[in-house]
Amino acid sequence: xxxxxxxxxxxxxxxxxxxxxxxxxxxxxxxxxxxxxxxxxxxxxxxxxxxxxxxxxxxxxxxxxxxxxxxxxxxxxxxxxxxxxxxxxxxxxxxxxxxxxxxxxxxxxxxxxxxxxxxxxxxxxxxx
Length: 128
What we know:
Blueprint: H1 4-16, H2 21-28, H3 32-41, H4 43-69, H5 73-83, E1 99-107, E2 113-121, E3 124-125
Antiparallel strand pairs: 1-2, 2-3
Helix pairs in contact: 1-2, 3-4, 4-5
């Protein structure tokens, strides 16, 4: 049975080579919950694993940014929506098919009001 530091080295090497956390744990012969317990129990181990995972994220961000600079519209849009200030999706809604209901009360006499409901498209009453 190998010691904790040896297993952490295996996890580190696997993560550095691009394996996911679960597979890195499997490579080291430990359960994911074991690594989690080690991370919760030691700020040093937690920082160590976090730095590896952040460096991988940074590599992807750098590649995305490089792609955006080289003219990829998708990468540019993605970057601006996720990193740019005041950039967001603004969905365009097709208003042409929305139906509106308008309630109209018609006064027949002083005592009676008859409610009528008309369907309208864009505020124009429908022809029936």
